[in-house]
Design goal:
The complex is a heterodimer of chains A (158) and B (282). Chain A has helices at 22-28, 85-93, 102-115, 121-127, 139-157, and strands at 2-7, 10-15, 47-50, 53-56, 69-71. With 158 residues, chain A is α+β, with helices and mostly antiparallel strands. The chains are: A alpha+beta (158), B alpha+beta (282).
Amino acid sequence: MKVTLIVNGSPVETDVNAGDTLLDTLRRLGFTSVKDGCANGDCGTCAVLVDGRAVTSCLMFAGQAEDRTITTLEGLGRAGEALHPLQQALLDAGGVQCGYCIPGMILTAADLITHHPNPTRSEIESYLAGNLCRCTGYVKQVEAIERAAEVLQETDHG
Amino acid sequence: MSRNHVHTYRRPASQAEAWRLIESGDPAVRLLSGGTDLTIACPPEVTTLVDVRHAVGSTIRTGEDGSIDIEAMATLTAVAEHPALRSHVSGVMPDMLRHVGGPLLRNLCTIGGHLARGKLSDVIPVLLALDADVTVYTGGAERLALADYYESDLRAGPHLITTVHLPGLPAGSASFLRFSRTAFDFPIINVCCRVDGIGPEPTDVRVLAGATPLRGTRANRAEAILRGGGLSDQSISEAAAAARDEVPTRSGWVASAEYRSHLIGVLVERCLRRIASRLERG
């Protein structure tokens, strides 16, 4: 069947099998920041924003995303261009090691600071409950998200 | 690459159209709401998905009497973040929902799909404690108590949950606690208590334990103790012991029946003390 997805601001019409997940579809379309980790809803590496909320794309059928707005990491900021404050803060804090979990983590954090612009450390930690990182122990990432929230607050109020 | 045998995807525009697609009870046809179960564990016989996003709403409405209607496609996040739910019976719904999965799951999971799933739930005992009703569509709409829905024959056949109704309740407080192996895991046991009335004698009480038994069982003897004795230290202790002894539990690979019973007593006591403390502070 054909579905139309609005990915990173652009409509994309594509053929999918009725049982395909959004994860499979996005990767086939070349959005490889969306990682196929556990494919079971446990690891968060496939997180994308759908209508501004972070979801595990492995737990969503492509058909459910029809005509909805999808943001992958490719839509947030690219190397060589202006980085999103979350990306910059992670670089500055040394919060990226192998990097596999980072796209999902950034998009989950983007959901958090969009809907809760001034999150506490505890709120950040519980919001990342579904994003597993096996390298860093989360400390640097939580610090980076705190910093990015501050930067965005300053930008909004500046 | 599909991870299932689904070959047909339908998007009915109305509940009547959705019903026409499912009314035969064909096991190859499955309703799809949030999709969090079907994406990872789609039964092999399922070949057609009926996505009800355009047939069932996701709006949350409040009534002048303090009631709240939640359309079944509302996500758990939408319920948790709605201001009316935050103030409804001391915000017990949002307080509970913080413990359900993580945000990535709550952003997808719908309240209707969750209730239809009907097991290993933190949501169900809280809704039972709040005397929730549901509207179910089976060619026509029927509203019934959530407790009756789980006891009815409806669940054996095709049906569509369309709305969850929370009644306006008298001033009081409610509390929810759960116990699980890890914060992200399904509950081993959970408890929700509700006390109506702000004086020494409650006007009504609910004490429920969920997870095992599967959905939520009222502790009637515990409730009777609290109706007679209020929230004194003694009646709280007696009610907790009664709940521990009267709610049936069963052994599984994560906990024995005896341990679950012990947890019920502990959690009921903690919930009731939390409520008593809140009501004392006013």
